Backbone:
């Protein structure tokens, strides 16, 4: 019997407009009404994830920054698992050898970027990749509005953040418009030279670098333990590389129809795409007692 459902956000719970559909909202609330726990596990930071849940009336635990943070249903921070500052310095040193990349620091004090232009390009590419029907120009317009409403801290040098003892660096994100041609060698380089990293991705054009103990699978397992729930009572849903650890951990793992091939290989089941309310479909199967057959 499934007692806990954990969903990714971008590409999973959120549709192509970066919203939660009414069908998904209703399904989540039905599950909670039936006594099934629901939680979010996202690569987003808290300020970008929690308000979206709150405005749609969804109260649930939130695993943020790929497992670097856990918040309870009221938004109380339960823990932070950041990268050591020496590790961040080593990562940035590796980055310095590469062109065509843009890195950002995700911290307990917000997101820090050293280029508004490259941040805009990064968000444009992400929106364009996620919405096949959107033109690049339309993605640029959406990205401009997105960047303006986000509280991004623009700095000239990341050194001031790395040297700030009160700043916890939860994740380092790096983007390249050239995608895997640049990012795959970079990933290999990081693993060779910097210990204790967990390197994942939420799109074809980025890498997300966390402490090895900050992974969605680890965070979901700890949340389940707090709730007295076993792995064979958990269903996880996702679409991208940063979801793999939680899909591997839970007995019931579900890939979106729009998921990356690696995700579909790992997941036991598949649901409709994020554009077609795949989360609602999977939850409805659970509630009807007609869950996927192996």
Residues:
């Amino acid at each position: 019997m499934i007692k806990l459902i954990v969903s990714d956000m971008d590409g999973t719970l959120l549709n192509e407009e970066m919203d939660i559909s009414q069908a998904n909202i209703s399904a989540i609330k039905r599950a909670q009404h039936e006594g099934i726990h629901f939680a979010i596990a996202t690569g987003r930071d808290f300020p970008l994830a929690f308000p979206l849940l709150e405005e749609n009336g969804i109260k649930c635990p939130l695993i943020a920054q790929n497992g670097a943070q856990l918040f309870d249903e009221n938004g109380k921070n339960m823990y932070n698992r950041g990268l050591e500052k020496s590790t961040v310095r080593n990562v940035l040193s590796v980055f310095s050898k590469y062109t065509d990349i843009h890195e950002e620091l995700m911290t307990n004090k917000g997101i820090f970027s050293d280029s508004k232009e490259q941040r805009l390009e990064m968000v444009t590419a992400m929106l364009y990749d996620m919405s096949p029907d959107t033109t690049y120009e339309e993605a640029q317009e959406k990205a401009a509005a997105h960047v303006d409403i986000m509280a991004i801290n623009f700095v000239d040098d990341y050194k001031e953040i790395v040297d700030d003892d009160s700043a916890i660096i939860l994740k380092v994100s790096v983007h390249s418009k050239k995608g895997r041609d640049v990012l795959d060698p970079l990933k290999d380089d990081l693993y060779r030279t910097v210990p204790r990293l967990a390197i994942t991705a939420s799109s074809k054009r980025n890498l997300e670098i966390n402490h090895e103990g900050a992974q969605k699978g680890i965070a979901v397992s700890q949340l389940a333990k707090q709730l007295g729930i076993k792995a064979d009572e958990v269903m996880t849903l996702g679409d991208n590389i940063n979801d793999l650890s939680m899909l591997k951990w839970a007995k019931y793992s579900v890939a979106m129809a729009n998921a990356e091939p690696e995700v579909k290989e790992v997941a036991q089941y598949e649901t409709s795409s994020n554009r077609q309310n795949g989360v609602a479909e999977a939850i409805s199967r659970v509630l009807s007692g007609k869950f996927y057959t192996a």
